């Protein structure tokens, strides 16, 4: 019986079977005998999440442009499908060929969030592969991983053969070319990994030996077999010239982000001290309006999408945004295509820009003040004033909006009750503003949704040294925040602290967490990012059994001179800069954004010059 | 404004696309094709499409029907060609024309079923089926959105043809179909399986025809 036939027998027993059969428009099917390299691009989450991810779309198309490579997509099955697969002896397969990924040359995981780590183990196991790198002696398949969480990959160093640091467009192809040669010359896996470690941007964890002090901190990290002392991330210098797909695979089922996403810039000039993305993607580089407009046109033509979204960390920092909006609006209106602009900042959201956005769609507006008082916003370097928040809300209300979503965090360094109360007060001021506005939308009440997440300190941020609030502290703070609110116009949402705690442990973990992750997975933990699947107690039991204290990773302050698990990785920003920023945070001093003044973070070395010439 | 009715197949991997998803898939294909389609009026404007008797998830179909509107007149051949160029694999338009019948006219549908059961030969399955169909009545409970009601399948389903292929029984059935009374072949199948305690190894169902009250093709 063919693999396809086996699959046919179980598919109708699974929820949303369209997730497991491929065949979508623009998916790439090649003749496996005509290609040299079969690459399995794995997203360690469900189809509807993975299919929303822009990075995967870019790399999928980039690899498939090459005749010698066939890149396929692989997502984690949901629990019902996993059970059916295990019962019926169906190994994890690529959606394009419907063939087992264990027969591929290379399997690549994208690391978008820490809570996907157990899903990686589960997918390797479903593929019929040993989960630990040392138990996979052969050259094929090589298991690689990249993405934001690769900036501290130590917790999963046991499972992944090599990590790809930074932007993948160039280094992925260099790695595949090396692999092609290794395959031709019949190199051992060890030899291949040693050679790969010489490619800038490739980190091979097995080539580093870690020793620890008695207090549990890292003593030193020793490179072996000529591996570099520090591994730097890769970036694309000329972002306007970078490859961008002309089409996307168009899913049949409804996925989280189902629209034409166009990337407008990389990096961020802002330097909010809690934000990992704001540092690890530096330096700031932007595409030109004409390029972005063409990308959008191509995508709409090839996919039939009727919505474009501009993707970046802070779209309003695009210097040509108004020009771009004019170019886009010149055809989107006629073609009945909607525009959505996530990631706008409240401080430079101009009236004419708002007009352009509202001419397209009037739904809710979302702002992220992040902290409830100016003092705390200064600590985190979120350079937004209350006046700016109110001005933007006023413009939005006058433009016809009646609902505003505000994002905040609890548990930020130096936070006091006044800051927590400030969250509710900010929301109340927005309500007050609305009720006193003369030309507000008629006959409609205002609705404010306040979403409050728990702060998780992340590597390569100025707060990488900070202790995370314990779960008890966060719960107390949530309780206090709720008690401050007496308005029905405010809807308060907050996150389960058990999830933030584990995220905090894994984010700043080291290699000793590998055995805990494995133990948690063996206890059935998988898809931890989903509330209905998350098993906090099983995780805590895994920590206990492996004799690892999670609080050591989550709730401990690090000295500036401590060797951190990711210190041997270089993401552009220097540790000296992060220390400087940390000190300024405690002094409640802000740092101007990169366009105003270079703060000397160090990322410009990746460009070989200044960021803003 | 020109009303267009297209007829298409939905086979292979496309059989896993649900009706709701087909709706979106077709709107996108129409958009890609660049055909001068009519958009609905109103705030959330979209391409107007409507389907007569859409096939349930998991069935193949050789007779799917979709209506939409063009704002310019075009030769039907061109409409079919341009749309086919932009459809995903497994969906193929085989006919187009101005709608003749209203969807209310649909009275019957015909399906090919291919059934394989664990520990049963095709002949054994066939014998069960024969006995099953000889019953005076076949009472099943049908769940609708609002209520559960009992119906008799006997007058609503007829077996037109059977054929044994090794472990598999192939048959063709005709069921009542349409807006007022629609019998999903799964309802029939489940009743059959539970009567004899059959455990499915594999089934395949293909919708072959959609017919009016005179057993003429729905066009």
Question: How is the topology of this model organized?
Answer:
The complex is a heterodimer of chains A (613) and B (219).
Chain A: H1 3-11, E1 37-43, H2 47-50, H3 54-65, E2 69-75, H4 79-87, E3 106-110, H5 117-126, E4 142-146, E5 162-164, H6 168-184, H7 189-196, E6 202-203, E7 208-212, E8 218-223, E9 231-232, E10 260-263, E11 265-266, H8 277-280, E12 285-286, H9 289-303, E13 307-311, H10 321-332, E14 338-340, H11 351-358, E15 365-370, H12 374-379, H13 386-398, E16 403-410, H14 417-436, E17 447-454, H15 471-484, E18 490-494, H16 497-507, H17 514-522, H18 536-545, H19 550-554, E19 569-570, H20 575-586
Parallel strand pairs in A: 1-2, 1-3, 3-4, 4-5, 9-19, 10-13, 13-14, 15-16, 16-17, 17-18
Antiparallel strand pairs in A: 5-6, 7-8, 11-12
Helix pairs in contact in A: 3-6, 5-17, 6-7, 9-10, 10-11, 13-14, 14-15, 17-18
Chain B: E1 2-10, H1 19-33, E2 49-52, E3 60-70, H2 76-84, E4 91-97, E5 108-117, H3 122-133, E6 139-143, E7 148-152, E8 157-165, E9 168-176, H4 185-196, E10 200-211
Parallel strand pairs in B: 3-10
Antiparallel strand pairs in B: 1-3, 1-4, 2-3, 5-9, 5-10, 6-7, 8-9
């Amino acid at each position: 019986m063919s693999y396809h036939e086996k699959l046919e027998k179980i598919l109708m027993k699974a929820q949303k079977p369209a997730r497991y059969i491929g065949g979508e428009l623009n998916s790439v099917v090649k003749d496996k005998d005509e290609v040299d390299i079969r690459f399995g691009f794995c997203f360690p989450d469900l189809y509807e999440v993975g299919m929303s991810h822009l990075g995967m779309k870019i790399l999928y198309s980039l690899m498939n442009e090459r005749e010698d490579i066939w890149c396929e997509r692989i997502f984690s099955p949901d629990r019902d499908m996993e059970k059916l697969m295990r019962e019926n002896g169906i190994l994890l397969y690529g959606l394009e060929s419907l063939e087992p990924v264990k027969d591929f040359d290379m399997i690549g995981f994208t690391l978008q969030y820490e809570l996907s780590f157990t899903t990686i183990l589960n997918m390797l196991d479903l593929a019929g592969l040993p989960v630990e790198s040392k138990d996979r002696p052969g050259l094929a398949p090589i298991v690689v991983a990249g993405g934001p969480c690769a900036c501290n990959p130590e917790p999963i160093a046991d499972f992944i053969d090599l990590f790809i640091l930074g932007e993948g467009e160039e280094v992925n192809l260099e790695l595949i070319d090396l692999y092609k040669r290794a395959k031709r010359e019949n190199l051992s896996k060890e030899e291949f990994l040693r050679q790969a470690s010489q490619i800038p941007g490739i980190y091979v964890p097995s080539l580093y030996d870690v020793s620890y002090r008695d207090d549990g901190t890292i003593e030193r990290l020793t490179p072996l077999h000529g591996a570099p002392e520090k591994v730097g991330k890769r970036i694309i210098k000329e972002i306007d010239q970078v490859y961008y797909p002309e089409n996307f695979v168009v899913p049949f089922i409804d996925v989280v982000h189902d629209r034409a996403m166009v990337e407008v810039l990389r990096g961020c000039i802002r330097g909010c001290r809690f934000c990992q993305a704001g540092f690890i993607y530096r330096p700031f580089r932007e595409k030109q309006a004409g390029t972005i407009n063409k990308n959008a046109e191509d995508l709409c033509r090839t996919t039939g999408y009727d919505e474009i979204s501009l993707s970046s960390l802070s779209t309003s920092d695009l210097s040509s945004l108004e020009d771009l909006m004019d170019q886009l609006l010149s055809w989107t209106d006629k073609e009945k295509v909607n525009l959505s602009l996530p990631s706008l900042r409240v401080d430079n959201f101009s009236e004419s820009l708002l007009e352009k956005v509202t001419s397209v769609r009037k739904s809710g507006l979302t702002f992220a003040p992040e902290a409830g008082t100016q003092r705390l916003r200064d600590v985190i370097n979120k350079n937004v004033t209350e006046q700016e928040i109110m001005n933007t809300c006023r413009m939005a209300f006058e433009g016809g909006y009646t609902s505003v979503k505000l994002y905040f965090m609890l548990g930020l360094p130096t936070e006091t009750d006044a800051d927590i109360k400030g969250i509710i007060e900010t929301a109340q001021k927005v309500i007050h503003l609305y009720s006193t506005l003369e030309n507000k939308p008629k006959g409609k009440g205002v609705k404010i949704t306040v979403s409050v997440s728990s702060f998780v300190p992340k590597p390569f941020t100025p707060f990488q040294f900070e202790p995370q609030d314990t779960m008890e502290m966060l719960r107390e703070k949530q309780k206090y925040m709720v008690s401050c609110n007496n308005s029905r116009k405010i809807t308060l949402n907050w996150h389960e602290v058990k999830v933030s705690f584990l995220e905090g442990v894994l984010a700043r973990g080291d290699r000793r967490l590998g055995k805990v992750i494995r133990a948690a997975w063996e206890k059935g933990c998988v898809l931890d990012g989903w509330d209905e699947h998350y098993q906090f107690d099983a995780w805590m039991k895994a920590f206990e059994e492996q004799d690892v204290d999670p609080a050591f990773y989550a709730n401990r302050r690090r000295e500036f001179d401590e060797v951190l698990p990711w210190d041997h990785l270089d993401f552009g920003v220097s540790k000296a800069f992060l220390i400087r920023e940390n000190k300024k945070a405690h002094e409640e001093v802000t740092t101007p954004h990169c366009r105003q003044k270079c703060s000397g973070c160090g990322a410009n070395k990746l460009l070989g010059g200044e960021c803003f010439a | 404004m020109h009303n267009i009715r297209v007829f298409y197949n939905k086979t292979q991997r496309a059989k896993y696309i649900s009706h709701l998803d087909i709706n979106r898939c077709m709107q996108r294909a129409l958009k890609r094709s660049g055909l001068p389609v009519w958009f609905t009026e109103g705030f959330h404007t979209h391409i107007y499409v409507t389907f007569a008797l859409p096939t349930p998830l998991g069935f193949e179909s050789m007779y799917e029907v979709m209506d939409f509107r063009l704002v310019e007149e075009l030769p039907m051949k061109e409409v079919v060609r341009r749309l086919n160029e932009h459809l995903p694999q497994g969906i193929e338009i085989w006919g187009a024309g101005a709608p003749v019948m209203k969807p209310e006219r649909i009275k019957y549908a015909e399906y090919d079923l291919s059934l394989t059961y664990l520990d049963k030969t095709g002949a054994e399955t066939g014998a069960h089926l024969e006995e099953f169909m000889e019953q005076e009545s076949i009472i099943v409970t049908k769940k609708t959105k609002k209520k559960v009601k009992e119906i008799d399948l006997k007058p609503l389903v007829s077996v037109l043809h059977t054929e044994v292929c090794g472990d598999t029984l192939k048959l063709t059935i005709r069921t009542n179909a349409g807006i007022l009374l629609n019998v999903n072949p799964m309802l029939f199948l489940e009743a059959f399986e539970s009567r004899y305690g059959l455990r499915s190894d594999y089934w395949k169902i293909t919708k072959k025809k959609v017919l009016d009250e005179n057993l003429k093709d729905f066009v």
